Each structure stands twice: as C-alpha cells, then as structure tokens.
Amino acid sequence: MPTHTDSAGAHPDHSSPSSAATPVIEFVDVEKRFGSNTVLKDLNFSVARGERVTLIGPSGSGKTTILRLVMTLEELTGGYIYVDGQPLTYEDRAGRRVPVPKKQQKALRTRIGMVFQQFNLFPNMTVLENIIEAPIHVLGQSKKDAMSKAYSLLEQVGLPDKADAHPLSLSGGQQQRVAIARALAMDPEILLLDEVTSALDPEVVGDVLNILRDVADSTNVTMLIVTHEMGFARDVSHKVMMFDGGRVVEEGHPDQIFTSPTHARTQQFLSAVLGES
Amino acid sequence: MTRVTISAAEIEDPTLVDEDQVRQSPFWDWEFALDALPDMLLAFLQVTLVVTVVGTLIAAVLGLVIAVLLRVLPAPLAWVLKWAANFIRMTPIVVQLIFVFWTFMWLDSLTIGIVVFGVHYATYMSEVYRAGIESVPKGQWEAATALSMPPVRVWRKVVIPQALRSTVPSLGNYAISMFKDTPFLIVISVAEMVTVAGQIGAPTFRYTEVYVIAGLIFLAASYPTAVLINRLEKRLAYAH
C-alpha cells in the first residue's frame, strides 16, 4: 500500500504551473447538444500544463460530458477543443468548421488517458494483459518494457501480486486501482478522472484517492477531475470550476471556492454536499 | 437432366416380396438390423456428419463475418448485406437447395449441400453474434477508445471474445438443428442416412429396424455434441 501519512492538510504547491505558454487543453465556444437538449453552451476555459482542475456541480450540469468530449467519446456539436494547441476533433479552416483528419485525432488522443466510474477493465484479459495491451499495440513498446512498467505500476497502486488475476475476481477498489495503472501505463499528458470513487464501497475510497494524490504529487500530469469528494478536490486541485446548467458559474482557487464561495449557486451546492454546517 | 442420382448404399435385388411372409415375420429382426447397420453408418459418416460439421464451421465463421460487417460497413453496403441475409434466412432451405442445384449444374451435389447449409445457417448465426456483440457493455468500447486501440484490435481482443461467451449455447442449438435438417438433402439427390434407411427397408417393407437405428445414431451423435457445447460454454466463462 502506498503510504501517505502527510496528506492531511498538505495542499499542493498552488503556485501557477510551469511553462504555461500553450494551454494543454483549451475549450473555445464549446457547445454540446444531445438532440434538442443543450448540455454545454458557450463554454470557454483552458488548462495549463501540469494544472489539476476539478469540476464540481450538481449532476446533469455537464461535468462528465466535458471529460467525454476531451476523450473523444462524444461528438462535439459546436465550437473547438484544442490539445497542446492542436485541434482535437474540429478545426476552423478559412471560417469553416471541418473535422480534423482521423490520424491527427488519434495522435492527440494517445496523450490523453481516462479512468472511468465503472472501471471498464477488459474482463477477458488478466490484469497484466489489461495494462500492457495499449503500450505494446498502440505505442509500440516491446513486451519486456511494457511488462516491467506494468509491474512497477502495480507496485505503485498496491497490487503487486495481482498481475495474473482476472479483473472480475478483484474487488471494486482493486479494479479501479488496476484501471489507474492501465491509464498511467500510457504515460498520458492529460489524465481524466470521471467520478472514479463513486462506484466504490466507502471504506476503499480513501485508498484509491491516496493513490491519485501520490500520482498528483509525483508526476506533472495534467488532471481534469470530476468528483464528489470535496476533500480530495481541495487537496489536489489548483483550480475548481463550479458548473450549473452547462455553464461555469464560478471558478477559483480551491481554498477560496470551498471557504468563501461568492456565487449563491456555489454556496447552495457546497452546503448541500458538505452537509449543513 | 444430366445429373446422376447419388446413393451411398447399393440397393439389394428388389425382387417381389410375399405379403404373407411380411406379416408373419417378427417385429424386430436382428439379422436384418445388423445387415443394415454398416450402410447406414457409412451414409451417416459420409454425408450427415460431413455436411453438419463442415456446414457448421462455414456457418460459424461466415455468421461472425456478417455480424461484424453489419457493424463496420458504410450504411448503404450494410443495408444491402442485411437484406441479403434476411432474404436467405426467410426462405426455406429446401427451396435454396433446389435453386442452387439447378443453377450451378456443374457442381457436385454434396458440395452444394454443404455450402447451402453453411450459408443458410450463417444468416441465423449472424443474428446470434449480433446479439452477443450488442451485449458487450458500452464501457468496453469507451475504454478501448481511451486507450486509442486500433479498431481491428478492439474487435479481436475486446469485443469478439466477450460477445462469443453468450453465443455458444445458441450456436450449438443451430448446429444440432442443421444436423436434423440433413434429410432435406434428398431434394438434391444426396442420400444421407435417413434416405438410405428408406432404401434398405423398401424391398421388404421392413422399416422398423432401419428407422430405429437411424434414430439411435442421431441420438448417439447429438448427445456428445450437447455435452461438448456445454463444456465449451464453461471454458469460455471468465475465471473467478
């Protein structure tokens, strides 16, 4: 198990992340509709390299949709998303909005990793096979390299003896830790965490969050996080964005958002989530 | 007609039979039964088993190819394939056998039988595979996308292995169903076991032995098949 004795109150370095010349993620006039239902509207924000941003807000406010748009799991119905300054799905070519070539989209996508609420491990593969599949067949690593990396990641997530286990024989918390190792095996620049503890038993939530704190502390990976764990959000994020009705109603430093939110909607949401106190 | 009737058994001298003799003969004649057995077994092995085994292999592979193509082809092509498969599935196999028999005169009847059975059942099996593919959770596709896995790899390593798990029992049922449809081969003059049984019984009007044997042979073949399918199903289940 990764030890994390000093996590309580140990906030990350909140000084602005280094080399913020080009944002790693940039949303420009993003709009997302499902049929006639507009989920996101006129959304503009950017995330700097190494920055960890948490999206909070009531369910249905479009937070998860934002992660899914970055992972290209949803069709972008309006506007543009840039990753490392390059258009991810659509680009503006002489005033016309055209789809980005598939090859370019794929190249950008390999820089992005995602951990899902429901883990989504491949049940027909062992834990090890889950982790080395993409490094070998997408990044072209040798089997030997991919395996040694996989073992060290399993060590990091506290499951060194589960390499040959099948995912469905593991508990939810263990599966999610494997899923984190699988995402990290791709060495992503951007890690998307979509309510990664929501499907877990309360007593294992802490383990998974501690692993993610370690990842945040030990790497420079940019994180976009959707979570209901406000303590975790406060510990790891550089910035918190409060969503409601598909728009950002307030954003700022976690200390400010959690202690003195200015917007009435944020105050209302936080008091509901954190309990009336 | 240029075709020659094929029969797996040479019919014995069909001399006229004395009716009284038939009536007085015992219900079950062991000697007659043992005489009939080799020809029937031969017909079973050479025709029934060959058509079923090769036909099932063709159906299982082609059915999967159809199911995957329906998902990956551009819409107009998928539409054409879908209706071609529907057409084959919704017309009787007897009609298809006769049609192919008289359209491709130069082909050997047994080959026609195998191909028609294989293609006909492929259209059924493609529906089983389709259901299996649809049963793979959306999250599996999304995880594959998040890992940027190439589409061929996603199908081969993630979707098809998981889709197959739920399909084995239904595919097995179709294999057994095909097995029991083989007597239809008579319409293209392929004498499989049941036809041969009739041919052996005809001269003496002794049908009891031959059809009981035919039934026992079907049973003897179906039962191990069912056991095999059961075992395969267990092997495909995830280890826990």
Feature tags:
heterodimer; A: 277 residues; alpha/beta; six-stranded mixed sheet; four-stranded antiparallel sheet; 9 helices; 25% strand; globular; disordered N terminus; B: 240 residues; mainly alpha; MetI-like fold; elongated
Strand content of chain A: 15-25%
Q: Briefly note the structural class of the backbone of chain B.
A: mainly alpha
DSSP E strands of chain B, number: 0
Order of helices and strands of chain B: HHHHHHHHH
Q: How many helices of chain B does DSSP assign? A: 9
CATH structural fold name of chain B:
MetI-like fold
List the helices and strands of chain A in order: EEEHEEEEHEHHHEHEHEEHH
User: Segments of chain A where pLDDT lies below 50 for 5+ residues?
Assistant: 1-20
CATH structural class of chain B: Mainly Alpha
Described by its quaternary structure, the protein is: heterodimer
Whole-angstrom Rg of chain B:
23 Å
Mean pLDDT reading of chain A: 89
Please provide the count of β strands of chain A: 12
Major pleated sheet of chain B:
none
The CATH architecture classification of chain B is Orthogonal Bundle
Shape of chain B: elongated
Count of the separate structural domains of chain B: 1
The N- and C-terminal alpha carbons of chain A lie at a distance of: 34 Å
Question: What is the CATH homology-level superfamily of chain B?
Answer: MetI-like
- What is the radius of gyration of chain A? 19 Å
Helical residues, percent of chain B: over 70%
